[in-house]
Amino acid sequence: MANTRSGKDTSKPTGVDKNTIARKTHEKDEMAAQKWKIEDKRKQRQQELESLRKDLLMAESQLKGSQLTEDERDELQEKRNNFQKVIQSTE
Question: Which of 26, 4, 24, 1 is nearest to 12 (CA)?
Answer without folding.
Answer: 1
